[in-house]
Amino acid sequence: YANVLTSRPDPSVALITLNRPKALNALNAAHFNDIYDALLEADRDDAVGAMVLTGSDKAFAAGADIKEMKDKEFADAYKNNFLSNWELISKLRKPIIAAVSGYALGGGCELALMCDIILASPTAKFSQPEISIGVIPGGGGTQRLTRLVGKSRAMELMLTGRMFSAYEAEKWGMVSRVVGEGEGEVVKEAVEMAKVIASKGQISVQACKEAINASFELPLAEGLHFEKRLFHSMFATKDQKEGMNAFVEKRKPNFTHS
């Protein structure tokens, strides 16, 4: 990939690092395609149980690439459904942890919001500043951020474009937690979390992610029914038998993801 680095800090964990340092990891079409393709490759790899997406210490991603967008016309944007491919990341089945340091602005903030868990460095700074350049968030910001922080706060943040800190994001429930200080600490913590997730049965992990995501879309009664059916389906897996027998026998389970 030209715009991302991929590695395996653990055989079960895929680490994807945004790599456009001169542009503070700004997201143009080629960059986003590399991010998605790298995540998709990991999602399809049976050895991978969880993924970590990160940038640099200075910037997770400092927004979408304005130079690429500034001359775009409505007809082109509408006809070609501009940014619609961004939704593809949220449809991946395995958990994605965003490890955010530095700036996560505009499209960078939206990219983090597409992930399943966000861990933040104390240096992380978030914003949806699109209002200041004559547009609105187009990669999910008005929808995902509002669901996490509430209407009034979302209105304030997106109508003013103001930047907010990792600690504010944690207090509002947007960020799972702020990790300790130190260069690379957030990636280290994210990899450790990914290893824990990857140690579980992949079928139950993916089903749990599916059920949690459905809770944002379904009325409570339908969501409870959906959850119950997924729960029932786990009893058709070898991992359920292994997990429960291991618990009774007081030993560590050996999941086969089957």
UniProtKB/TrEMBL annotation:
Instruction: Extract the PANTHER family matched here.
Output: ENOYL-COA HYDRATASE, MITOCHONDRIAL, ENOYL-COA HYDRATASE-RELATED
Q: Which GO terms describe its molecular function?
A: enoyl-CoA hydratase activity
Pfam families (UniProt xref): ECH_1
The record lists the organism as: Serpula lacrymans var. lacrymans (strain S7.3)
Alphabetically list the UniProt keywords: Fatty acid metabolism, Lipid metabolism, Lyase
A GO CC term assigned to this protein in UniProt: mitochondrion
For this entry, the protein name equals Probable enoyl-CoA hydratase, mitochondrial
Entry EC number(s): 4.2.1.17
Q: What is its EC class?
A: lyase
Q: Which family does it belong to?
A: Belongs to the enoyl-CoA hydratase/isomerase family.
GO BP annotations of the record are: fatty acid beta-oxidation
Q: Does the keyword Ribonucleoprotein apply?
A: no
Under PROSITE patterns, the record lists:
ENOYL_COA_HYDRATASE
InterPro entries reported in the protein's UniProt record: ClpP/crotonase-like_dom_sf, Enoyl-CoA_hyd/isom_CS, Enoyl-CoA_hydra/iso, Enoyl-CoA_hydra_C
